[in-house]
Design brief:
Layout lengths: L5 E8 L4 E3 L2 E3 L4 E11 L6 E3 L5 E3 L2 E5 L7 E6 L4 E4 L2 E4 L4 E4 L1
Antiparallel strand pairs: 1-4, 1-8, 2-3, 4-7, 5-6, 7-11, 8-9, 10-11
Length: 100
């Protein structure tokens, strides 16, 4: 059986600003700590599509029980030295997967 190690990741969410009394108010980025497992891509040949239909190459996956966070843009996993842009975050019934 394969050993799977749990990692703690910090996800940065950058919510959109909002209009308030005729002025655009920027919102500060939030950092959320989540736990899960990281799986690097074996070949770098796996292609996936984003919700907007754009294609991207999967470099790794972070699987977690945390629900999808809207406007999440970045993930850091200090224990393995990963600091990457989130390409896509897919929600399933029992878990979610962050594609890097």
């Amino acid at each position: 059986m394969i050993n799977r190690y749990s990692h703690t990741a910090i996800v940065t969410a950058e919510p959109n600003g909002r209009w308030e009394h005729g002025e655009w108010i920027e919102r500060e980025p939030n950092e959320i700590t989540i736990k899960g497992q990281y799986f690097p891509s074996n070949s770098g040949n796996q292609l996936k599509y984003k919700a907007d239909g754009k294609e991207f190459t999967v470099k790794g996956e972070f699987s977690t029980k945390h629900k999808k966070i809207d406007h999440a843009t970045h993930i850091r996993i200090g224990s393995i030295g990963l600091d990457a842009k989130i390409e896509s975050w897919e929600q399933f019934q029992t878990h979610s997967v962050i594609y890097i």
